[in-house]
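Structure ticket #2291
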Amino acid sequence: MIYFPLHPETPEGGITLEELFPGRNLNPMKENMKRLMREAGLEYGERSHTFNSRLAQELGKWADSQDEKSEIHDLIYRAYFVEGKNISDMDELLKIAETAGFDRTSAKEILEKRSFKLIVDEDWKKSRELGITGVPTFQHKQHLLVGCQPYEILEHFVNTPTK
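Resolution: structure written out below.
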């Protein structure tokens, strides 16, 4: 998994979606997101804010290095997209880490020391080099497919021979 800096300029306290998308009618965007998530079988709540995901990405990288089968990514998704939690908040991330079965003290230490900062920096660099502009982005050989896609499109993407 490569992490991507989606709105890295977002302050720790977050901003409203109206601030993120000034002058845009958010209702069609929200309805489209709900539809896409429903089609993908994912829950999606009534988000009103966006939050900086940097620390959550560092926590996710650490968790992956401890247990590749951890549910931490699902829990971060749920906290952010379903429950509207601030995933840049240290206490919120520590609750998520504990729920995923990780030691709170260890998680706090890696977040405070920023132990996985350089690794996430490398992911951000790689995402720029690959031309990734949104999430999710799927890569197959040298081709990219951006956005939530139906299963049939993903299957075709992976099974189509490339030159």
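Closing remark: Residues 99 and 144 are 33 Å apart (CA to CA).
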